[in-house]
Amino acid sequence: MIPELAPWQQRAYDQAVATLAEGRLGHALLLCGPERLGKRAVAEALARYVLCQSRGADGRACGTCRSCRLFDARSQRDPVEVRPDGSPAHPWGHSAHPDYILVGYEWRLKPSPPKPRTEIVIDQVRELSERLALSAEHGVRIAIVEPADAVNYNAWNAILKTLEEPQPGRYLWLVASSPSRLPATIRSRCQRLEMRLPPRDEALAWLHAQGHDVDTAQAALDAARGHPGLADAWLRDGGLALRKEVAADLARVARGESGPIETAQRWAADEDAALRLYHAADLALAEASGLTDPARIRKLAQWFDAANRTRDLLRTTVRADLAIAELLVAWRAVPARQAPGQERGGNR
Ligand SMILES: [Zn+2]
């Protein structure tokens, strides 16, 4: 079964279903909004509904017709499946539904060990276009590209061609958290379905329903600046504790209580180094967002960029502790907050 939708996901879904009911759902849809809000869940639920052969008046798929059963069987597949002949499979598994096409990161099999690609390449898009054009059992075929912001520059022409020659009953849905990265010629041809951060009360109620107690949920939601999906992820994978640790480290480095080199060695010592840099960059961004002093905002923005660059460096052969130490030396040079008694880099 596909998961129950969160209230903010349900709103986006309902909007699309209403558009379909009015006969206004076009060939191309751009589903956008912040990462981890569940855009993919909305796209899947919508695909299941559009493909359903016995759609209810309540805007839900029946769940029992042949199409729904085929669709649901898909979710049981191993997400990191590779085809028996060794050719790459979709990391989320293949759809058992012949009229449902999902295109995302594939696996690069050579050199060994296999790794997922970091972009969606032209061969994938060509295959998508071919499959989308095939005849469909009930006249409907749906292709989803996610993340569409990872489509390779050369592959966009192939997508554009598909968008320019729409066929009846064929849908192409692009899912993106940074839609501005998509070419304007693509964006202008898509209907837009936008997902936004929910109101705080709704986010808290949802986090509570995920099993987090009220205080923890509030702290995580504050740290994630109102993003429930992020807060939930941080609570599940220890990200919130790590974030607090990073905030405390940054404060100590800024006050001169810890050395950049010693701190960098600790940050680089385990597999969480990239995650620490992610939180460090985000904490700088959070600090900057509440400020009015342009000089400090600029310094924090520069440091935010530097932290992200350092995170990219971790994937190269550069020595992680040295790269991080340089970043932390730069952190000391960011002018300190003026208000007395407030910690640098703390959670707000
Ligand atoms: Zn059905």
Automatic annotation (TrEMBL):
Q: Entry's SUPFAM superfamilies?
A: P-loop containing nucleoside triphosphate hydrolases
Keyword set includes Plastid: no
Give the enzyme's main class according to its UniProt record, as a single word: transferase
Question: Where does the chain cross the membrane?
Answer: none
Query: A Pfam family for this UniProt protein?
Result: DNA_pol3_delta2
Q: What is its EC number?
A: 2.7.7.7
Instruction: List the catalysed reactions.
Output: DNA(n) + a 2'-deoxyribonucleoside 5'-triphosphate = DNA(n+1) + diphosphate
Q: Source organism's superkingdom? A: Bacteria
* An example Gene Ontology biological process: DNA-templated DNA replication
Q: Which UniProt keywords apply?
A: DNA-directed DNA polymerase, Nucleotidyltransferase, Transferase
Q: Which GO terms describe its molecular function?
A: DNA-directed DNA polymerase activity
Protein name per Swiss-Prot or TrEMBL? DNA-directed DNA polymerase
